[in-house]
Amino acid sequence: NRGIGGQTTSQLLLRERADALKLHPSAIVLEAGSNDMRLGFAPEAIRDHFLTMGELAEAHHIAVFVATMTPTCDCFRPLSGPRTVEQIHHLNELLAAMCTEKHWTLIDINTSLSDTSGHMRRELTVEGVHPNDAGYALIAPPMEQALHAYGSKSHR
User: Fold this and answer.
1) pLDDT tens digits for 18-68?
2) Contact (CB, 8 A) for 70 and 120
3) How far apart are CA 142 and CA 35, in angstroms?
């Protein structure tokens, strides 16, 4: 895990070479976008950063996995701002289309955290943006399953 709280996808892109590629991983999971959206970046710009990070990883023979953006809620205090259900849904649709086009694996971590309106379920968040332990317990299995499936295929 090389995530740094508060960073945007453009900052992740700048750190990708030193913090990921030099480690020579066989796979990378890209999970980001909330800070970009909080700052007003359009879903298309966020997707483009994912695309560049994924293409750079792929050029280094690293399998690319992309996680959907998690939902948010204003259940404790106003935090969502521009991170609306609609904007998050739009970004996740763009990420899904990108993964289909590039033959990358999309890992849906949004659905298990969302309530029926598309917001983060109150019992699964610390403050409305980040999952708590119960939330992480729900998003770990889809990530583990995707990576395990990749590991099984790559060792054949």
Assistant:
1) 999 999 999 999 999 999 999 999 999 999 999 999 999 999 999 999 999
2) yes
3) 23
